[in-house]
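Hi,

Apologies if this is the wrong queue. I'm a grad student, and the batch job for Nitrate reductase from Stieleria maiorica produced an output file that my downstream script rejects. I'm not sure whether the problem is my script or the file. Here is the sequence I used:
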Amino acid sequence: TPESLQAETTTVAACGYCATGCGLRLHVRDGQAVGLTPETEYPVNLGMACPKGWEALEVLAADDRATYPLLRDADGEMKRVDWDTALTTFTERFKSIQSQHGNDSVAFLSTGQIPCEEMAFLGALAKFGMGMLHGDGNTRQCMATAVTAYKESFGFDSPPYTYDDFQQSDCMVFVGANPCIGHPIMWERVLRNPNSPEIIVLDPRRTETAMAATQHLQLRPKHDLAILYAITQHLIASDLIDHEYVAAHTTGFETLAEHVASFTPDVVGPAAGITADAIRRAAESIGQADAASLWWTMGVNQSYQGTRTAQAMINIALITGNIGRPGTGANSITGQCNAMGSRLWSNTTNLFGHHKFESAEDRERVARILDIDVDRIPDQGSWSYDRIVEGIRRDEIKGLWVIATNPAHSWIHQGDFKELLDKLDFLVVQDMYASTETAQHADLLLPAAGWGEKEGTFINSERRYGLLKKVRKAPGEALADFQIFRGIAAYWGVESMFADWTHPEAVFEKMQAASEGRPCDISGIQGYRQIDQSGGIQWPWTRQDAASNDVPPQQRRLFADGTFYHSDGNARLIVDAVAAMPEPPDSEYPILLMSGRGTVSQWHTQTRTSKSKVLRKLYPQRPYVEIHPTDASLIGVRNGDTVSVRSRRGEIFVTAMVTPTVQRNQAFIPMHYDVTNQLTLSHFDPHSRQPSYKDCAVAITKV
Ligand code: SF4
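Support response: The file is valid. Your script probably expects a header line. Output copied below for reference.
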């Protein structure tokens, strides 16, 4: 309680880990947060938090916080320097590279972990101020597929749902998603659903969510697209289609029906390792439900055919009329706390507010709103992340600025990526922690404040703007990323361009102006104060919404009237051939390795969560591989033995966890361990350029 903490005041802020966006009440004494409790009145989490949220303050006090700038000296040692030296070096080195090799030879890699206003500042500074063309976010690793799928199907990147839908569905389909541990507060909302919903899980693993499902389609990996097409085929064959909705609001039904005709359950089921009846039963559950919803996360997004798989789910929602009503939707669950903000405001592949770099009209509008010379806005978007990485290999990218992300741990085919980092002429890492795998390679480290030490807004999975609050002083000389960007603007000589970018809320006002009249319109929000008082506000929230005030901001879903963002108002039904697995298991590498979230208590590369004693206790610190009992006995491995896991890219030594949750000839290693991506394969979805993390062939042997 506030009393036991002897807090003087409390305030509510959005959590800074995952895209659920829980509200946490921070208890503050002498200007410093001394404790937190999940906020009971916040419409997202209703008084709940997962272990990461509970420990959010603990990790700010870690020993390895970056507290002052570090610069690598001639002997290769990182030495403390002052901010003047750091920013002078930053400017001189990057300008020197640009003058020798062109402006595009310096790029940035950003994140879904900083607030919208900092993302907007970073993108504007790097591109309009420093003249860079290329910069992408680590959201390429988690959400790019959903973005592409929605843009093509709906005409705008627009997850249509609100969290109340978890409690209003009577049939819920989770594909490649394990919300029990990945999004536990959302899962709690599912458990509060009074309809006793049918819960259908498509997952090769018997995950915690699959164990709680009423139907688990335990398919062979990467057969999800074929099964979704088979479900579609059976829906059509059984006439479980909303013909009126299809005719009024979609384009492409005949092509869809023709495409899926050969994907009968009898053909697809045995190939996918499940029965035809299981597919038929799932289809009928969806088709006969009053309100069916389909949900996906990384099992779909991180796939070489992710975009088409997501669109197969969107197709099912559309042809059954399950969209725009309570409890429905084809719903991508986002990963990071501000991945949704990155999608709108990062100025990477899209221009400020999902405008198009390629459109002269859009460039002029953004230039007018930001009061900058339109010629400073490039007429093309950035290379995607993987192309930036390839640009380093080809000597086209010589300088790199990495902000609040740890790609030396998380990028696919890690060994190759680390070698490329060392090939750079100059690498700047801007981070809260000096010890990340990426920071180890830096030439210059800029110490950044973290969640709780600065202000701004995050957008959660249901499009809700939540507020980040400053309730702690950052340690040492660490600065908010926003202040670092202001400093760089001054040293670079473009301070006047950002003269009125004085504080995050001033940037928020620019975001509001840029959003006006667009699907993501937030022009009606009355500043941070209204976000704070409302428990967050979902986009869109227009001036008209604000004036009429007859729609509560907490309960909004898109497409209630069946009008989508394509010029004719119709959604597109998109289908494609099923792609071949890039590296199928063979006699030398007979096991298919999947990676993913392994626990509720760790976050991504463990940069923050490993600093909490409690969170460490909740998760084995030694990496492990899940392996099926039969496979284990064939190689003489028992639970707890050390095994070698070898792919064509590397070999790691981990503990065997013998468990039937994985099927025969499959294995699973959590992504949180720094060794996992030594094995993974550089392969990407061709539409979204998202890495395919969950399908590399390995051999496992006893050590
Ligand atoms: Fe934070 Fe996500 Fe946990 Fe909520 S579920 S407390 S947003 S990490």
